[in-house]
Write a structure and sequence with these properties.
It is a single chain. With 170 residues, the protein is α/β, with parallel strands linked by helices. It has a single domain, classed as Rossmann fold. It has 6 helices and 6 strands, in the order E-H-E-H-E-H-E-H-E-H-E-H. Strands 1-6-5-2-3-4 form a 6-stranded parallel β-sheet, with helices on both faces. Helix 2 links the parallel strand 2 and strand 3. The longest helix is centred in the middle third of the chain and has 11 residues. The chain is globular, with a radius of gyration of 15 Å. It starts with 6 loop residues before the first strand and ends in a 16-residue tail after the last helix. 38% of the residues are buried.
């Protein structure tokens, strides 16, 4: 099914190096807004900076793949020390292709991580990459009507089961 994630977590910081190694994942294609931070926020969400350091220490490669424009993505990526792909056109594959070239890993070793079913999860499935759904950091503000509408129509496709961090996954 095109709208089904391979894995689901409460948030990005619940994904552990142990889980990734167990599933033969060496690289993450990371969504930005509501996955690593809230919308339009240049500062990582609580724990995200430490999580990125932990992933780097465990040799997990990461690239931010965002549909947003460079003025939004670059300052955040610079702050956390990650490469990035802007205007990724998710769910289409061009952004994932550009990120994969930056990482120099086969698609079989990658996973897409994001909070939206119709961009991140669908894009992963269309490209044949494993998808990791994470629940959004916050509900979008009332002025983000399109995103709020998408959240409503995504509900039937939300994962029913979530992975849980265990001490053996760390």
């Amino acid at each position: 099914m095109l709208f089904r994630a391979d894995f689901a977590f409460g948030g990005v910081t619940d994904i552990t190096p142990g889980f990734l190694k167990k599933n033969n994942i060496e690289g993450l294609l990371l969504d930005l807004d509501n996955t690593l931070t809230t919308h339009d926020n240049p500062v990582p969400a609580n724990g995200v900076g430490e999580w990125i350091r932990l992933m780097k220490e465990n040799c997990i490669k990461m690239v931010i793949v965002s549909n947003n424009h460079p003025p939004r993505v670059k300052p955040f990526a610079d702050k956390v020390g990650l490469k990035f792909v802007c205007e990724g056109k998710k769910p289409l594959s061009s952004g994932f292709n550009r990120a994969q070239k930056l990482m120099k890993l086969p698609f079989s070793k990658l996973a897409v991580v994001g909070d939206q079913i119709f961009t991140d999860v669908l894009g992963a499935n269309l490209k044949g990459i494993r998808g990791i759904f994470v629940y959004p950091i916050e509900i979008e503000a009332k002025n983000k009507r399109f995103l709020r509408f998408k959240r409503v129509i995504e509900r039937p496709f939300l994962p029913k089961l979530m992975m849980h961090k265990t001490t053996t996954d760390i």
